[in-house]
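# nightly structure sweep
# worker-07 picked up a monomer target from the shared queue
# config: single-sequence mode, recycle default, output format = structure tokens
# input follows
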Amino acid sequence: MSDAAVPMTRPHRPFALGTARLLLGLMGLMLLYATVYFSFFASVEEGRVSSPIDWVVAGWALAMGVGFIAAAIRLAVPGTLRIATGLVLAHVVFGVVKLVGYGETEAVGLFGADLLILAVLAAAARERR
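# output follows
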């Protein structure tokens, strides 16, 4: 037997895929937290859900939050990158609704996060090829 050191190899874990999972998961958690907070705990002055239209928007946010987390968990499964990209694009539309319909300028910052997630998803797609 030789005393020569055998280099240890680690399995290849694509950086962009891991980063996309992290960002998708964080966005999903943020959406779920905000939906629960504004649906049940916020005051009317803070923007509590109060009308039927508000409940539709809250349901949309809840569905996207769950979708983001599910996509983060299953991102390595074929086809999930496309689903995740569609979710991010739906979140952009959601941000436009919040900005135009509710006058929430906070949505502008989330547009930047959406662009970052889209860029990382594109990089993850390139890593797969």
